[in-house]
């Protein structure tokens, strides 16, 4: 697709692999702020549109050309969510937590913000775990049931539809909590910039939190703009 100023951030992330890295570089919100046009996003973040466009095209060509997640069916998208994101969160967040606790305990006197960052990170751990459990236990099995129905429009039950809608509502609440918390952590950490005299644990914590924030934004974009629209179309 040709990138224009009228495209939204969410459209580009859905269709241009690697564009999320470019948006993160210029601190452009591609999750909750994904509905903003590129023109508005460039103006707000003081970046030239042509610069942004060229960087997105370059990284997209480098890592995968025109392949898009929108081309995948729902079962493949579920597999992608688990392998690309759920497994990553399950492995990475427990690695981060000991460092968040350690840094809060050691550096609170000179960097009081790390205490709040520790609390907020624990909150993310809980919300993400509950969200993934709800999706894997309650949403994905129902979707597979529906996909196995020969005539979906005629045979899908009201109970199945209500189960899907309930999980999606829960997900919407979780997404807002995660998004708001990430914004707080970003501000408190000065965009994950550790102090000049920070120890290795301090630096590692901010590096991993930055990485986690990026992956969470990617995941929430994927759910909101790729996966959920296909699920809603399935139960129409």
Structure described in brief:
The chain has 236 residues and is mainly alpha-helical. The protein has helices spanning 9-15, 19-25, 38-45, 49-63, 74-107, 113-147, 152-155, 158-188, 200-234.
Tally of individual domains: 2
Mean pLDDT: 89
Overall, the morphology is: globular
In percent terms, what proportion of residues is strand?
under 5%
Radius of gyration: 19 Å
Sheet with the most strands, sense and barrel status: none
End-to-end Cα distance, whole Å, is 28 Å
Number of strands: 0
What's the tally of helices? Answer: 9
> Helical proportion?
over 70%
- Report the structural category: mainly alpha
Assembly context of the chains: single chain
- Sequence of secondary-structure elements: HHHHHHHHH
- Unreliable sequence segments: none
């Amino acid at each position: 697709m040709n990138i224009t100023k009228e495209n939204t951030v969410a459209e580009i992330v859905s269709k241009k692999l690697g564009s999320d890295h470019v948006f993160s570089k210029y601190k452009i919100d591609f999750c909750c702020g994904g509905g903003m046009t590129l023109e508005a996003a460039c103006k707000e973040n003081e970046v030239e549109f042509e610069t942004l466009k060229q960087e997105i095209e370059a990284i997209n060509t480098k890592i995968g050309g025109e392949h898009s997640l929108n081309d995948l069916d729902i079962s493949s998208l579920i597999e992608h969510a688990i392998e690309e994101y759920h497994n990553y969160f399950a492995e990475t967040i427990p690695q981060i937590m000991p460092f968040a606790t350690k840094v809060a305990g050691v550096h609170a006197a000179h960097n009081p913000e790390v205490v709040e960052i520790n609390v907020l990170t624990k909150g993310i751990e809980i919300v993400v775990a509950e969200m993934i459990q709800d999706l894997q236990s309650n949403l994905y099995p129902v979707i597979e049931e529906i996909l196995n129905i020969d005539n979906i429009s005629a045979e899908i039950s009201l109970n199945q539809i209500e189960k899907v809608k309930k999980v999606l509502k829960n997900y919407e609440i979780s997404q807002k909590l995660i998004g708001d918390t990430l914004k707080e952590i970003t501000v408190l950490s000065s965009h994950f910039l550790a102090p000049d005299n920070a120890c290795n644990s301090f630096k590692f914590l901010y590096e991993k939190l930055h990485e986690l924030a990026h992956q969470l934004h990617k995941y929430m974009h994927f759910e909101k703009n790729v996966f959920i629209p296909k699920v809603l179309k399935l139960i129409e």
